[in-house]
């Protein structure tokens, strides 16, 4: 595949160079420090160079390296500005682009999957990829009935590359972790590995996308393209024309940012409540702002199946934090496994730890920003802080892991957008347990009413 590294040994060598490069720069930094340069300046320089090498390497690979890069990129807003500025463009690039497959490889996959007469299915087919991601690339085409479509073609050997890269990255978690303050990289990599088989299964993806498309068919705020055709390694869906969310982040006006942010928050909570599925890959490359103002949503390869919607204890805990009910919050966290039986914490300290994170739901409209995200990340990451020490004692139950990552990722995108969002409205409308039971009984519509009304 042209200059794209295909052999496992080549990919492994590129990934292995990351910690080796870090070790070399650390030794160089020690020499400079002995020579009189301030330790803080040396540390900043080492972190910046390590990050630059990481993003350059991930950007040249597909598979798990690309997947990890996309997952990491939504946390860019947590980085200090002096670091984030120089390589923000490199991070954003990971969300939308990767070296393409040659046309002959694409044609071979289409022939294998759709038959030797595959061209008869299309009135037009562009060999130039419109987008490329971790396990496949998308081509723009016109279906034989005249509909504009997106044709997602899976890379040959994508599964092996995903597993190999993520296994390699897992061994380097200690080096990669410091790049994003307050984030534990190892569980993220572990979870990505566990989702590999689901993401490679275009049948599961088509099933999830059909469910979302049916539920949001007449929605005024969200558009999900219909599935046109699906087989093992090819997925054909309706084409979505719109402004990529990454472009809105870079150059959108405030009204655009606010509209995209509100609809993104609504999709996170309403989508799960209405479909029983959680879209679990909320990086900007999967969203478009359409000309009619709706948010276009793509890529349903990673979903969490939650038939009852988001867990009710989440909404109940948020409500009690907002009401400053320290004892109630603490009891609930113990019951749900966030505090292990052998750990004893001060309820007021737990409330102090959670309250700043819940700030966006406390006001009528919250202005998400990179500064706010950095403040939260720094508060939790500082080893000297009480928040850091308490955070290390809390436990994240496995059933909440993906929900936690999706929520953090969505907040990261809202901060990149700098959007003003009425988050409390979305929580009240869609999050079980957020309203007192008597209010939920009167304000929450039944599933049948929801399906027949707008979001």
Could you characterize the architecture of this molecule?
With 455 residues, the protein is α+β, with helices and mostly antiparallel strands. The chain is globular and about 70 Å long. Residues 1-8, 19-43 and 446-455 have low confidence and may be disordered. The chain has a domain at 243-455. It has helices at 8-34, 39-59, 63-73, 81-96, 103-114, 158-171, 173-176, 185-194, 196-200, 202-215, 245-251, 254-275, 312-322, 326-335, 347-354, 359-362, 370-381, 386-393, 398-417, 423-430, 437-443, 447-451, and strands at 122-132, 136-143, 148-154, 222-223, 227-230, 234-238, 243-244, 277-279, 287-289, 295-297, 303-305, 366-367, 420-421. It contains 22 helices and 13 strands. 39% of the residues are buried. The strands form four sheets. The chain has a five-stranded antiparallel β-sheet, sandwiched between helices. Strands 4-10-9-7 form a four-stranded mixed β-sheet. A two-stranded antiparallel ribbon has the order 8-11.
């Amino acid at each position: 595949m042209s200059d794209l590294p295909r052999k496992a040994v080549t990919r492994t060598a590129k990934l292995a160079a990351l910690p080796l490069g870090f070790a070399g720069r650390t030794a160089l930094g020690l020499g400079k420090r002995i020579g009189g340069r301030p330790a803080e300046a040396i540390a900043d320089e080492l972190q910046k160079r390590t990050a630059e090498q990481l993003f350059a390497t991930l950007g040249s690979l597909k598979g798990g390296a690309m997947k990890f890069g996309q997952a990491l990129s939504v946390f860019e807003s947590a980085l200090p500005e002096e670091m984030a500025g120089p390589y923000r463009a490199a991070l954003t690039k990971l969300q939308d682009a990767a070296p393409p497959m040659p046309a002959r490889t694409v044609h071979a996959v289409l022939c294998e999957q759709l038959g030797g007469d595959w061209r008869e299915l299309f009135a037009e087919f562009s060999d130039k990829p419109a987008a490329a991601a971790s396990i496949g690339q998308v081509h723009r085409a016109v279906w034989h009935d005249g509909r504009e479509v997106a044709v997602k073609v899976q890379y040959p050997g994508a599964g092996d590359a995903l597993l190999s890269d993520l296994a390699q990255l897992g061994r380097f978690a200690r080096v990669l972790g410091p790049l994003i303050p307050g984030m534990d990289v190892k569980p993220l990599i572990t979870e990505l590995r566990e989702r590999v088989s689901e993401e490679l299964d275009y049948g599961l993806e088509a099933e999830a996308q059909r469910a979302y498309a049916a539920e949001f068919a007449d929605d005024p705020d969200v558009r999900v393209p219909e599935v046109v055709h699906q087989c093992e390694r090819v997925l054909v869906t309706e084409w979505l024309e719109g402004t990529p969310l990454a472009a809105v982040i870079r150059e959108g006006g405030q009204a655009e940012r606010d509209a995209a942010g509100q609809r993104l928050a609504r999709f996170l909570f309403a989508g799960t409540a209405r479909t029983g599925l959680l879209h679990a890959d909320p990086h900007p490359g999967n969203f478009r702002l359409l000309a009619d103002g709706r948010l276009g949503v793509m890529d349903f390869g990673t979903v969490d199946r939650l038939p009852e919607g988001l867990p009710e204890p989440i909404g109940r805990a948020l409500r009690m934090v907002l009401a400053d009910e320290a004892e109630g919050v603490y009891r609930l966290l113990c019951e749900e496994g966030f505090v292990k039986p052998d750990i004893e914490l001060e309820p007021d300290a737990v409330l102090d730890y959670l309250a700043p994170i819940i700030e966006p739901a406390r006001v009528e409209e919250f202005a998400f920003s990179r500064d706010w995200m950095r403040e939260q990340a720094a508060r939790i990451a500082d080893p000297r802080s009480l928040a850091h020490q308490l955070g290390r004692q809390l436990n994240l139950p496995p059933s909440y892991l993906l929900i936690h990552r999706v929520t953090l990722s969505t907040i990261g995108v809202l901060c990149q957008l700098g959007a003003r969002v009425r988050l409390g409205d979305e929580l009240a409308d869609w999050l079980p347990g957020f309203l007192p039971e008597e209010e939920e009984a009167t304000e929450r519509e039944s599933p049948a009413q929801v399906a027949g009304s707008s979001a």
